[in-house]
Write a structure and sequence with these properties.
418 residues; alpha/beta; six-stranded parallel beta sheet; 6 strands; 53% helix
């Protein structure tokens, strides 16, 4: 009875965050017909409700009953919404709205199927992460194949902060530690502009050097984190404290899409958004959030000037990788951005194009095996699914999954004496 309640509690915590995020994303993505996202939300929250019931009653409800009730719930609410929408006088016999409703319903069903697959693959690793955090799963025996000469500093991208629970880098840091790596975090603001982020990263870098007694660090940076570190090297006097900089999908050449968005919406729109984003991220812990300035720095025109001024240090090894979604179904959260960016910037991971990610020694593209590709969150094990990778000679040897990729990457650094 006690073990059943424990399992239910873990399920409640995981489902609450996952389903809430999925549901909120659906509402935003389905636009004016967003009301049709609610059947999908109702479907997912049915599982959460059943696990709440299990927690209080101590009776484990079988999956087939949960699934049957959830499908029935989905169909009933879908039919009810369709009836209410189609019976509305304002849109009755309006071909445009009817087509929009039908298309949104189809998209909703597709989301439902992909969401089920997503939750299925997320469930076990997320549960294991919670159990590992509370010491219920013993740590793996420590190896030394990733014990590099210099510690590894992980630098996150925009919109996130370094947190112990549900780490930005998924299970990658823990696995690297199990292989002997000394891991540190940049701890900079989620929405800091390049200059402010770089200054905060330098503080974390110096702390890592003090704790380890090392002369330098190896930096692995994701997304905008790579740009922040490049600025720190060129402007903040830390070129002699960094041995290598590995960038994963960093927008080194910006995005033409962002230039287009600025020309369409104007600066006023971004300033309006910045007001709310900055307040929220101050609450979450940012010291100097700057959504407006940061969003401008993703523009291709900005990065063109940035690259003329910010020069590389010849003493540092620069290398880069890009991620690529094979199709919009690679990630249910990134599909829309992937389509938009594809028009102006070409192949991308949902946020950064392959061409924009190229800098220093470009090592190649990280792609998924089979039908699915690799999205921006997949590159840092953001969903804890450890996606399988298409093996390539350009990637570190043995990169069968995203976690293997990082292990192999750090092994390479050790092999060359860094």
């Amino acid at each position: 009875m006690k073990s059943v309640r424990k399992k239910a509690l873990i399920a409640i915590i995981i489902e609450f965050f996952v389903f809430s995020y999925v549901g909120f994303s659906l509402v935003l993505m389905l636009f004016h017909a967003g009301i049709l996202a609610f059947p999908v939300i109702a479907f997912m929250w049915t599982f959460w409700g059943f696990n709440v019931l299990t927690f209080f009653l101590g009776i484990e409800i079988k999956l087939r009953y949960k699934l049957s009730f959830a499908v029935l719930n989905f169909l009933v609410i879908s039919l009810l919404l369709a009836f209410l929408i189609n019976s509305s006088e304002s849109i009755k016999n309006n071909t445009v709205h009817i087509v929009a409703i039908v298309l949104s319903a189809i998209v909703g069903i597709l989301y439902l199927l992909v969401s089920i697959l997503f939750v299925k693959h997320y469930w076990k690793p997320a549960k294991n992460e919670v159990l590992r955090l509370f010491g219920k799963i013993p740590p793996e025996p420590t190896l030394d194949d990733c014990k590099t000469k210099y510690p590894v500093l992980l630098v996150h991208g925009t919109g996130f902060r370094d947190r112990k629970l549900f780490n930005y880098w998924g299970l990658i840091p823990e696995i690297l530690k199990e292989h002997g790596a000394a891991i540190f975090y940049s701890k900079h603001d989620a929405w800091a502009n390049i200059e402010d982020a770089a200054n905060q990263i330098v503080i974390a870098l110096k702390e890592a050097l003090e704790k380890t007694g090392s002369e330098k660090v190896n930096v692995i940076a994701h997304s905008k984190g790579g740009i922040d570190v490049r600025y720190a090297i060129a402007k903040l006097g830390v070129s002699d404290k960094i041995a290598s900089l590995t960038m994963i999908s960093s927008p080194n050449h910006g995005l033409k899409t962002m230039d287009s968005l600025y020309s369409i919406f104007g600066k006023g729109f971004f300033k309006f958004c910045a007001f709310f984003v900055n307040i929220w991220f101050r609450i979450l812990g940012d010291k100097k959030p700057d959504f407006f300035e940061t969003s401008q720095q993703f523009r291709a025109s900005f990065m063109e000037n940035f690259n003329k001024e910010i020069t590389d240090s010849p003493a540092i090894m620069y290398q880069s990788f890009a991620g690529k979604m094979k199709n919009p179904f690679s990630d249910i959260f990134m599909w829309f951005l992937n389509l938009i960016i594809r028009f102006s910037d070409g192949a991308n991971d949902g946020l950064v194009s392959v061409d924009s990610a190229k800098w220093g020694k470009f090592r190649g593209t990280i792609e998924g095996r089979g039908f699915f590709g690799i999205s921006h969150p997949h590159e840092v094990d953001g969903y804890r699914t450890n996606p399988r990778l298409k093996e390539s000679e350009s990637l570190p040897s043995g990169s069968k999954t995203i976690r293997d990729f990082y292990i192999s990457l750090v092994r390479e650094l050790k092999k060359i004496g860094l």
